[in-house]
């Protein structure tokens, strides 16, 4: 019922004793798992943690970079107030119908603003003088092309307020980041973003061994 990147029995125990999914979340996971590239689905346990953190800071406006089938947008939108907003971005609208079906069933479609196109362009538009969105978001979730993480980070850092946070998914990449022989562009980009966060005095940082690894940058 959930995607896990590990067969570790301890991780399974944690998930089995903490993960809470409603019927709409279960349905969207099941539909996504039928796709040949279902591995792109974010870990339900990691997203539950991020949703709980959003509740803790009383988040109202959030960013979702990499919509895919809409599970992350759904999970976060459900914990926002009725006038809350998730701006979700994806280069493709291939799965928009599936996403909207489940957003509608959960009663959160009105909270989700889907932007089609390169996420860099969508984020820059939010930062334009006309939009005036700088520093107005509480949280950003980045789970898109790994080579773009550094650019997404810099843009989200301008959009997320001090006291908010930015989360990066897949930073452990199935352990590939530990294999120095792996110099692929995605693996290299993930190593670099973790190194960048570690050295960046604009944020406080934690990396969690949850799902496929989640890095958290808390904006100062």
Largest sheet: number of strands, sense, barrel closure: 7 strands, mixed
Give me the number of helical elements: 8
Kindly state the mean pLDDT as a whole number?
95
> The CATH topology, please?
Rossmann fold
- The name of the CATH superfamily reads Vaccinia Virus protein VP39
CA-based shape: globular
User: What is the distance, rounded to the nearest whole angstrom, between the alpha carbons of the first and last residues?
Assistant: 37 Å
Widest sheet, order of strands = 3-2-1-4-5-7-6
Overall CATH class? Alpha Beta
Structural class: alpha/beta
Secondary structure: helix percent = 25-40%
Instruction: Give start-end ranges of low-pLDDT stretches.
Output: none
State the CATH architecture. Answer: 3-Layer(aba) Sandwich
- Domains counted in the coordinates: how many? 1
Q: Name the beta content range.
A: 15-25%
Q: What is the count of β-strands?
A: 7
Q: Could you explain the architecture of this structure?
A:
It comes from Macrostomum lignano. By secondary structure, this protein is an alpha/beta fold. The chain has a single domain (9-219), classed as 3-Layer(aba) Sandwich (Rossmann fold). The chain is 39% helix and 20% strand. The protein has 8 helices and 7 strands, in the order αααβαβαβαβαβαββ. A 7-stranded mixed beta sheet has the order 3-2-1-4-5-7-6, with helices on both faces. A hairpin with a 5-residue loop joins strand 6 (203-208) and strand 7 (214-219). Helix 2 (23-33) runs antiparallel to helix 5 and helix 6 runs parallel beside helix 7. The longest helix is centred in the last third of the chain and has 15 residues, at 185-199. The chain starts with 8 loop residues before the first helix and ends with a strand. The model has no long low-confidence stretch (mean pLDDT 95).
